[in-house]
Amino acid sequence: MNNFYRIVVIFFSSIVLGFAFNMFLLPHEVLTGGVTGVAMILGLLSPINTGIWIIILNIPILILGWLKLGKTFIANSFFSVLVTSISMLYIPVVQITNDALLSSIFGGVIAGIAIGVIIRFYGSTGGFDIIGLLLTKKRDIPLGGLIFALNSIVVFVSGFVFAWDLALYTMASIYVTGIVIDRIHTRHIKLTLMVVTRCGEELKHEMLSKLYRGITVINGEGAYSKSKLEILYTVISRYELAVVRPLIKQIDPNAFVSVSETLEVMGNFRRE
User: Fold this and answer.
1) Residue 7 and residue 5: Cα distance in Å, rounded?
2) Which structural domain range is residue 256 located in?
């Protein structure tokens, strides 16, 4: 059921992405960033067709993603790209507004929502999304900002090949998309979790089995009740909070829980 739900969400999000392209970005000929943008430049500078370049450039990225992110992720990504491509064939290219800047911003917002949801449900739209996810596994870098930086390089180079005004509209659209992605994909945000409980041993065992995080156990005492307590201290990602919250309520509904955002983590922290 979870896999079916994931596929359904990726399916509809991919259609929304196709809608953003055909209704907002393509009518104003807003340039494409990422691997497609690189392929467009190479297609103009060489006798090889742009479509061939898209396939050539994506093959090593997909292989790398298969090795580092898993076959399920790549299968979801391929499914997303396929659905997006097919939806763009049937969704008419209609200019909703004559204002190119307005279309770039709204197209960027809608595309950011779609891409963020797809990534959150363990998929991607291919190209730089996969590279960005690989880099964020090693460093706590916001994914949207990283994708924006990678795309900006392509757009800057394409500005010398295409028109600069279109390149600047694309920069605005990509920037908005990156911000929206970071509002949805929050895996890079780390949280400090402190739990004061009377069921320390049971809760510690369940958290270790579900989270794969190191936990520091501190013996404590209630200042008023004088009762013996245990304090569990750990750092988790924002996504893992959804796992921890019901776990604590199930084992110890009376536990005192403190959650705060962590600016930086040093030491052995599992980022996968």
Assistant:
1) 5
2) 190-262
